[in-house]
Specification:
- By secondary structure, the chain is an all-alpha fold.
- The chain has one domain.
- The protein is 74% helix and 0% strand.
- The protein has three helices and no strands.
- It has helices at residues 6-18, 23-36, 40-49.
- The longest helix is centred in the middle third of the chain and has 14 residues, at 23-36.
- The chain is globular, with a radius of gyration of 10 Å.
- The chain starts with 5 loop residues before the first helix and ends with a helix.
Length: 50
């Protein structure tokens, strides 16, 4: 996950939720998002796609 861009990480997070992937996987993505301090991009992505 370290190699993913911020945008791709956020997209992956939303896709993992959409596909109902394992909670452990989603948690790992969420932790990486927190570590990068890019939580604000989650809502930005939703408003852009939605």
């Amino acid at each position: 996950m370290k190699q993913l861009s911020d945008a791709l990480l956020v997209q992956s997070y939303h896709k993992a939720i959409e596909l109902n992937l394992s909670e452990d996987f989603i948690r790992q993505i969420r932790e990486e998002i927190k570590e990068r301090s890019i939580q604000h991009l989650i809502e930005k992505y939703v408003s852009h796609v939605g």
